Amino acid sequence: MKIIILNRQDRVDLNTGLLKKVSAYAANKFDNSRNMELNIVFIDKEEMAALNEKYRNKQGATDVLSFSYRESLSIEPACLKAADSGSFNNVENFSVAGEIVISPEVAKENVADFTPDFFHSWNFEREIALLIIHGILHIYDYDHEEKSDSVKMESLQTSLLNDVITNFKL
């Protein structure tokens, strides 16, 4: 799967090269086609709050939003389109799986909120990897609305995260 990273914020430093590798590793567990694209967009907290209200009717910023285009590839929020996504959509047999939108500011807050005794090894890179994996799972139809679905999603999420932490030494 082709991973496109768009960093549209400048408040938190990101290792986009590492994040692209982590994203490709996790996404390829679901679809390793070279004709599939996944966009990962990093935005500031204010823009995330606006998107959260627009698409989920919830106030305030969240850490991650996912938009799956696997069923209807023509539905793409205009504010999230990659600069070159139009040219990809015109290529025969090429599809955009979806977009994951992440607020690094909220991710940093998440890390700060962990209890140090229990999550002594938790860090920003692991948090971002978790959010990417969480977003990928939503794109591939996993959810956590019902208890049984939540258990299944969290189990897979934990397994993938442990795999990523081990393989990328996060």
Provide a descriptive summary of the structure in words:
With 170 residues, the protein is of the alpha/beta class. The chain has one domain (2-168): Metalloproteases ("zincins"), catalytic domain (Collagenase (Catalytic Domain), 3-Layer(aba) Sandwich). The chain contains six helices and four strands; from the N terminus they run βαβαβαβααα. The chain has helices spanning 16-27, 45-56, 85-89, 104-113, 124-139, 147-168; strands at 2-7, 36-42, 64-68, 95-102. Strands 1-2-4-3 form a four-stranded mixed beta sheet, sandwiched between helices. Helix 5 (124-139) packs across helix 6 (147-168). The two termini are 22 Å apart. Mean pLDDT is 87; it is low at 73-90.
In short:
The chain has helices spanning 16-27, 45-56, 85-89, 104-113, 124-139, 147-168, and strands at 2-7, 36-42, 64-68, 95-102.
Give short descriptive properties of this protein.
170 residues, alpha/beta, four-stranded mixed β-sheet, 6 helices, 45% helix, 15% strand
* Sheet having the most strands: 4 strands, mixed
Order of helices and strands: EHEHEHEHHH
Give the oligomeric state. single chain
CATH superfamily: Metalloproteases ("zincins"), catalytic domain
Rounded mean pLDDT is: 87
**Number of distinct helices:** 6
C-alpha Rg (nearest Å): 16 Å
Number of DSSP E strands: 4
CATH C-level label: Alpha Beta
Q: Estimate nothing, just give the exact number of structural domains.
A: 1
Cα(first) to Cα(last) distance is 22 Å
Query: What would you say the CATH architecture is?
Result: 3-Layer(aba) Sandwich
Secondary structural class: alpha/beta
